Amino acid sequence: MSKYLKTLLRGTLPDDELKLLYSSYDIIGDIAIIKIPEALMNYKNIIGKTLLKNIKNINTVLMQSNPVSGEYRLRDVDYIAGDEKYLTLYKEFGCKFLVNVATSYFSPRLSTERLRISVLVKPNELVLNMFAGVGTFSIVMAKKKPLKVINIDSNLDAHILDQINSKINGVQRHIISLHGDARNILQKGNYLNNFDRILLPLPEKAYEFLDVALSCLKQSGGIIHFFSHVKSDAKKKVVFESEKHIARLFSERTCDYQILHTQIVRDVAPRIYQTVTDIQINKL
Ligand SMILES: C[S@@+](CC[C@H](N)C(=O)[O-])C[C@H]1O[C@@H](n2cnc3c(N)ncnc32)[C@H](O)[C@@H]1O
User: Fold this and answer.
1) Ligand 1 pocket by C-beta < 6 Å: which residues?
2) CA atoms lying within 13 Å on the CB side of residue 239
3) pLDDT tens for residues 165-218?
4) Which CATH superfamily is domain 2-85 in?
C-alpha cells in the first residue's frame, strides 16, 4: 500500500520528497496511523486526505509523532484527516476490541502472537496476564477455551476498556480485570502458588517482574510467556541472544526451567526485535 500511496501522491509531492515516505502504517479499526518524516511535515494534510480517500473503511487518519513510550506504552498521535477521534473498534479472529489509540496501548502487529498463545492454553487453566492492556491476549484465549484469567493493568483507561471488551466478547465470566501495579496487586493479594500460566507482555521490563511471576505460578509448576526486546545486528542471532538473556536471569534463581520455544514476534526498530519465550517452570 505504501508503494500505492507513493503512486497516488506522485505529481503532488516532488519525487525527492516522495522517496522519504515510510513504508508502512497501522490500521486499527477505522483509524489509520502513519509516521511522517520531519521533511514531509508540510504535506501531512495531503498525505492524510489521500489515505482517507483511498483506503476502504477508514474514517480517521492520525500521525504518530513519537515512538511508544512511558509506563503505559502510549504513542503520541496527532489528528490529520477525517473524523477527529481516537476511539475505534478493532476486529480479529472473531473478537472485537474497543481501543483508544491515544490513551491505551494496542498493536495489530501482535495478532499472530495472540492466536499462537491461545492455541497453547489448555481448557480450565488459571491464567494470569500481568500487563493486559485492553484485554487482547486474554480475550482471544477465553473465546477459544473455557478458562479463568486474571488481567492486571496500571493504566486506568486500558483497564476500563478491558472490562468493556470482556463484555462485548461475552467472556466477562471468565476474566477478572484488576487495576493497578502488577507487583503490588500480586504481593498484597492471595496469589502465591496460584496460576498454571503467566503472560508477561511488557518486553521492556518483564525481567523486573520475573520473581513475582515465579512466586505466583503453581507449586507444581507452569508456563511463563516471557516477552523481551533484543538488540542484535544479525537477525539470525536474535533467538540465541534472547535465550542467553533468560539463562542469565535464571542463573540467579533456584527453580528449574526449560525453554520450550523462542521466536521473534516483530521488529520494533532498526536492529531491535521483540521476542517471546515459552518457559516451563518446575519449582523445587
Ligand atoms: C506493551 S503493553 C501490552 C498490553 C497488552 N498485553 C497488549 O498486547 O495489547 C504493556 C501494558 O502494561 C501496562 N503496565 C506497565 N507497567 C505496569 C505495571 N507495573 N503493572 C501493571 N501494568 C503495567 C501498560 O499500561 C500497558 O498497557
Assistant:
1) 71-73, 105-106, 110, 131-133, 136-137, 152-155, 158, 181-182, 201-202
2) 10
3) 999 999 999 999 999 999 999 999 999 999 999 999 999 999 999 999 999 999
4) Met-10+ protein-like domains (3.30.300.110)
